[in-house]
Automatic annotation (TrEMBL):
GO terms for molecular function: 3'-5' exonuclease activity; metal ion binding; nucleic acid binding. Residues 34-190 form the 3'-5' exonuclease domain. One of its GO terms (biological process) is nucleobase-containing compound metabolic process. The keyword NADP does not apply. It comes from Candidatus Cryptobacteroides faecigallinarum. This is 3'-5' exonuclease. The lineage of its organism: Bacteria, Pseudomonadati, Bacteroidota, Bacteroidia, Bacteroidales. Keywords: Exonuclease, Hydrolase, Magnesium, Metal-binding, Nuclease. InterPro entries: 3'-5'_exonuclease_dom, 3-5_Exonuclease_domain, RNaseH-like_sf, RNaseH_sf.
Amino acid sequence: MFISSITAEQLSGMETASFPGEAHVIETEGPEFTKAVAYLGRQRIIGFDTETRPSFTASQPRYGVSLLQLSGAGRAYLCRIKSLGMHRKLCSILSNPRIIKVGAAVHDDIKGLQKYSMFKPASFVDLQKIVWEWGIRDKSVKKMSAIILGFKISKTQQLSNWEADHLSEAQIRYAATDAWVCREMFLKLMVSEKNPLHIEETPEKN
């Protein structure tokens, strides 16, 4: 059984983990993109996330999705959507009912990607919508991963510039981790006994 919620003090005492595999940044079509599509197409479950350049003032424009992250167990592919676009082969993966895509708050991510190219999403799992079945109230990726996997992840790069000419190693590792950890949480939940929250314990939906 999992604890229902975790405190900042408990989080601070945990070890920090990050994606342990190969992280590849894809900016254009080519051999690396072909490898990415082939690898992701072979997966049964992949972690899913997106990143968007933040706007800090009302006068700044609202930016579109900058990065699409898709991760298997050993490899994560970070697709720079502003240069690559929502390629039809990426859309095919996101529409493939045989590949489970696991993320958090996936609805907004999907809508952001559909602004580049319309596709019909299939087999998406939103961790925020299912963790209550295992008795978990917290909904942030950082807290859910701590509760389910027993380690914390760094969020220091979250508000960095995802449209920079070159992504830093810290950005790459952060982006890969966010997708990978969603996959790992789902796999752990699938082999864990359910202990659903009672109705009165379930957080209100926004």
